[in-house]
Amino acid sequence: MNQPFSRRFSFTLRAVALVSTIFSLAGKVAAQEAAQAPLGFEEYDPVSTLKVEEHVVKRARFPFIDIHNHQPRMPTQDLKELLSQMDALNMAIMVNLSGRGFTQNWDESTEHLKASITNARKTNGSRLVIFTNLVFNDFGAKDWSQRAVKQLEEDVKAGAKGLKIYKSLGFSGIKDEKGNRVAVNDKRLDPVWAKCGELGIPVLIHTADVASFWDPLDRYNERWLELKTHPGRKRGPNDPVPFDSLIAEQHDIFRKHPKTTFVNAHMGWYPNNLKKLDSLMEAFPNMVVEIGAVIAELGRQPRTAHQFFVKHQDRILFGKDSWVPSEYTTYFRVLETEDEYFPYHKKYHAFWRMYGLGLPDEVLKKVYYKNALRIVPGLDKSLFPD
Ligand SMILES: [Zn+2]
User: Fold this and answer.
1) Which residues surround ligand 1, an ion (CB under 5 A)?
2) 347 phi, psi to nearest 5 deg
3) What gap in Å lies between CA 167 and CA 249, rounded to an integer?
């Protein structure tokens, strides 16, 4: 009585085994096929299996100054909300570099600057600091330099604590009266740089872009993804001049104005060549650098970057550039921890992972606030520890 049942049962078992073998074979074939199929760089997003200690830093270890921020709506913005976002990060002072907003009309932008300062003071004038900008609208007019210098004096009197130069200077966005590109070292700008030295205010200057933007857009370009997603950033080899020429124009003004302090934005676009940057630090004692938008370069060379930060600890400032509060954690983690192989927040800047520099507290304090307190006049020192 049992026999037919057990025979039937064993037949069923064998059938199940066969079917599952077929499925598992099919599964293997599918997996093999998937492994053979091309997988685009943009889709590839492996989950790291590395298990190491993690120290996610949402708040900086010390109060800090962000020397490179943009708040273009400052005249009308609810600045209390901004202050509470800053508090969460331990940002004691934010420097808004867009004091004149984004209009190129002289009077309108002066109004914008004054209204920004008024609104900042109404909320918290010591934590919200503003730099002014130049108006290039009628550059090349006979009295432009004179007018710019006079305006600068007035802006500083009104409360601006520095001058920010956008990268549009040197690119084709700014033209003179003849329609020509204005070089960064155009002589007509000399009185402005000299005046900043006289007034004791720093010039934070952004010149050029990542050198890769001038390189061919092919599989060898490290910024391939950025150029694919932001095609407007791609430049021909001489558009408007080669990278090296633009950078040389910038260095020329550092050389010509030794009494003016220049804050070279984005580490002067040499965060990926710290040996070169080291030689520039040597050549231009009046140049300091800030680290806005280049933390991914530092986080891929923790030992070299650590050495650089220790050597030049008095001349590196904290900056971030784009105002995305959640991204600051990458900066804090790279600077403060010795974590390994942790993610960066934008694949188009870095498809590689980060390693912490583990900077000593004394160096961190200088980068976070002491250097900025020395360079930017009239900041409130009481917001920081010794
Ligand atoms: Zn900027």
Assistant:
1) 321
2) -65, -30
3) 12
Has residue 4 got a pLDDT over 70? Answer: no
C-alpha of residue 261 to centroid of ligand 1, in Å: 18
| Interval between CA 14 and ligand 1 midpoint (Å) | 70
Return the amino acid letter for 85: Q
The alpha carbon of 322 and the centre of ligand 1 are apart by a number of angstroms equal to 7
Q: Is 237 helix (H, G, I), strand (E, B) or coil?
A: coil
Check whether 158 has a pLDDT greater than 80: yes
- Tell me how far apart the alpha carbons of residues 206 and 263 are, in angstroms, rounded to a whole number: 9
Residue 100 · residue 112 · CB < 8 Å: yes
DSSP state of 322: S
Q: What is the pLDDT of residue 336?
A: 99
Q: 225: CA distance to ligand 1 center in Å?
A: 21
Global confidence as pTM: 0.92
Q: How far is the CA of 296 from the centre of ligand 1 (A)?
A: 16
Q: Where are the beta strands (DSSP E) in 232-368?
A: 262-264, 287-290, 316-317
Give the confidence band of 37 by pLDDT, cuts at 50, 70, 90: confident
Give the per-residue pLDDT at 33. 72
